[in-house]
Specification:
The protein has 225 residues and is mostly helical. Helices cover 65% and strands 0% of the residues. The protein contains eleven helices and no strands. It is globular and about 45 Å long. The protein starts with a helix and ends in an 8-residue tail after the last helix.
C-alpha cells in the first residue's frame, strides 16, 4: 500500500490545492526570472526550503503522538518567517489532511491532529499522512521534495512559454539530487529523520520571503504563493 500511496499523493489529481501554488515562481518571474533560470530556481528551493520541509515530513512520518506533530507545527512556523507563506502552507496542509481523513476515518492520530492543529503546515500534514499509509520517513522526505519541485515545474508551464515536456525534463534532470537529499546518502540528506528528536535543518531564504510579501499584495496573480 505504501508504494501506491506515494503515487497517489504525488498525483496532481489528488485534491490538495497544490495547483493554486507556484512555490514563489510567479513572484520571481515578476522580478525578471527567465525560462533558462527556472531549473536553477527549483534546485535552490530543494536545497533550502525543500530540504527543511522534507526533514519535517520525515519527522512527522516517524511520530506516534499528536503532541509530536503539534511540536513540529511550531518548528515549521519558526522556519517560515513570512506570514503569507505560513498561510499558504496551512492551506495545503489542511487540504491534504481533509483528504486523508476521508481515506482513513478511523485513524486517531490523523483525526486528533486535524482537530488540534491550528497551523497544519504542509510538510507536517504530509508526513502524518505518510505514517498512516505505512510510508517510511525517507520516502516521506522524497515525496515532499518531489512535490516541491513538481509544483514549480507545473506552474512554469502556466506562467512561461515553455513546453510541458521540457518542464518535466527538469525534474528528471534533478532525480539524483532529489534522491541524495531524501535518502541521507549524501551531504545534507534528511531521510534518516525518524522523530522529533532528529532535528530538522533551518535555512534562510530572505529573497523568497520578501517576494512573498509583495506577491500577497499584488492585484493580478494566478497563484496564491
Amino acid at each position: 500500500m505504501a508504494g501506491v500511496l506515494e503515487l497517489v499523493l504525488a498525483d496532481a489529481r489528488t485534491p490538495s490545492g497544490g495547483h493554486a501554488h507556484s512555490g514563489g515562481l510567479e513572484a520571481a518571474i515578476a522580478e525578471g526570472l527567465t525560462i533558462t533560470e527556472v531549473p536553477g530556481y527549483i534546485r535552490a528551493r530543494l536545497r533550502t526550503v525543500g530540504r527543511c520541509e522534507a526533514a519535517l515530513a520525515a519527522c512527522a512520518a516517524g511520530a506516534g503522538r499528536v503532541a509530536e506533530l503539534l511540536a513540529l507545527d511550531l518548528e515549521a512556523a519558526a522556519r517560515t518567517p513570512s506570514e503569507p507563506l505560513r498561510r499558504a502552507s496551512g492551506q495545503l496542509g489542511r487540504g491534504l489532511l481533509r483528504t486523508a481523513c476521508t481515506w482513513w476515518p478511523g485513524d486517531r492520530l490523523l483525526s486528533g491532529y486535524r482537530a488540534q492543529s491550528a497551523l497544519t503546515p504542509r510538510p507536517v500534514a504530509l508526513g502524518a499522512i505518510a505514517r498512516a499509509g505505512g510510508v517510511a520517513p525517507a520516502e516521506a522526505a522524497r515525496l515532499s521534495l518531489y512535490d516541491d519541485a513538481a509544483t514549480v515545474a507545473a506552474a512554469a508551464v502556466k506562467l512561461l512559454p515553455v513546453d510541458a515536456a521540457v518542464a518535466s525534463g527538469w525534474l528528471v534532470a534533478l532525480a539524483g539530487e532529489l534522491e541524495g537529499l531524501a535518502g541521507g546518502g549524501g551531504a545534507g540528506g534528511v531521510g534518516g529523520a525518524g522523530g522529533v528528536g532528529a532535528w530538522p535543518p533551518s535555512t534562510s531564504t530572505p529573497l523568497l520571503d520578501r517576494r512573498s510579501l509583495a506577491h500577497a499584495r499584488a492585484d493580478r496573480r494566478l497563484f496564491v504563493s
